[in-house]
Amino acid sequence: MLAMMLYPLAVFGNAKITIQMRTTSTVGNDVVCLGDVSDIESADQRITQELSGIKIADAPLAGQSRWIHANEIKVRLKQAGLDEQQYRIAASGPVRVLRRYATVTPAKINAAVKAFVLHHAPWKPNQLKLHKFTLDQELTVPPGKVTFQVTAPKHTDWLGPIPFNVLVMVDGQAVKKVTAPATIEVWSDVVLAAKPLGKFQPIHADDILIKKMNLARVPSNAIASGEQVLGRRATRNIAANSILRNDQVEMPPVIKRGDVVQVIAESEILKVTAKGLAKENGVKGDRIQVMNLGSKKIIYALVVDGQTVQVEF
């Protein structure tokens, strides 16, 4: 207790502890001590130091202020065990206490969001365009080293407007959390029909064109390269300049319904062949229904090429 460390008033004779309240004060910590808001005069330096460290009130938030009144000081001194006869307050106050602060600009927060996107988005940096940052207010924070923790909403597709969450840290401690919306544009090659395409029409190089487009404005199943479409055929009529989608093209069947095919059943020691009749269309790798022309039974066989199917033996 402070009272155990302070000398009795008689030790100082007629001298008293004088507490001169200031008019204004600036603090950097979370608490306001007596030494922050007053000048203390005492015959004993140890007593002055003890009094200076007495907590008077909680500090205001960074950049804000509060008032400290003489009565608050008297209450705290009494709680510390100091009698009013041992001191006098030379000014009635109050003291305006301002908390030191630093500012974080929107540009710094937006730069942190951009760095996060470039590191985490599933796109190449040269495909990305990040814009329409709507956070435009400075943040007031305590002084110190400022860092940021940025997170994206769960299940984001990294396209279009996204509200990013930014945790502002000062010296490793979280001090504020803000939402920093931004819009992501991703530009990539997209395949378009260069001319009208008819149903089941084979697609050749002069039937398509490649154009860079904002993926936010194209279907999610848009075709992105010529390799995905050349050699295939249209599954429906497609207008010129239409974006080609995966559900609009297919590999043409190598075996068509009604084709006579060779059916092969083969093991390490035995190979059996027979003639069969394809009951449905199939591309290489498809499993289709085939009727064995000898037994008239329907079997399922794997399409090997345009003349051959294979069954498990």
List keywords for this structure.
single chain; 313 residues; mainly beta; eubacterium ventriosum atcc fold; Type Iii Antifreeze Protein Isoform Hplc 12; SH3 type barrels; 5-stranded antiparallel beta sheet; 22 strands
Q: What general outline do the C-alpha atoms trace?
A: rod-shaped
CA-atom Rg in angstroms: 41 Å
User: What is the CATH fold-level name of the largest domain?
Assistant: Type Iii Antifreeze Protein Isoform Hplc 12
Beta-strand portion reads 35-45%
| Major sheet description | 5 strands, antiparallel
Cα separation of the termini: 95 Å
Number of helices: 5
Indicate the low-confidence ranges by residue numbers.
1-15
Structural class: mainly beta
The pLDDT mean sits at 91
Domains, number: 3
Number of strands: 22
The CATH superfamily title of the largest domain: Antifreeze-like/N-acetylneuraminic acid synthase C-terminal domain
Percent helix range: 10-25%
Please trace the helix and strand order, writing H or E for each element. Answer: HEEEHEHEEHEEEHEEEEEEEEEEEEE
CATH class of the largest domain: Alpha Beta
Give the second-level CATH assignment, the architecture of the largest domain.
Alpha-Beta Complex
